[in-house]
Amino acid sequence: MLASGPADGAYALAGQEYAQLTTRRRIIIRVPALVTRRAGPPPQQEIQWKEKKAGRCLPIKSIAGAAIREEDGVDLILNDQRRFRAKLDSCQSADFYQGFYVEPTADDLLCADRDMIHARSGAMCEIEAFRQLIVKK
Question: pTM here?
C-alpha cells in the first residue's frame, strides 16, 4: 500500500522509499563577438551603414556572430553575410561586448518584443526591433 508522502514527492512502500525526479534540459546558444576589422593599417574610411525596415524575427541558427557599433544595439552577422541591428530596450550594448547567449525557442526564431539576449556578465535585455543594415553608397 502506498502512503502519501511529504511535499518533496517522496513516498514509502513496505519500508522502501521512492521519490520522483524530473530532469529538464536547458540549451543555450552562444553568439560570439566578432572582430570587425582586420589587422594592419587602419582603413581609409570606416564603413557607414544605413538602417532599413526588417521583419520581426530572425532564424537563430543563421546568426554567425555579433559586433557592437551603436550604443543602443547589437549588430548581428548572419551566415550569408547579411547584417541586422537588434535594437535593445533600455540597455547598453557595451554589456554584450564579449558576445551573448540566446535560449532557443520552439520555433527556432529570435523575435523582437518577445526574446531576450543574455550577456556573459549576467546582463539581459529584450530586443525592441530589428533593422537591416545596408552599406551606404
Answer: 0.69
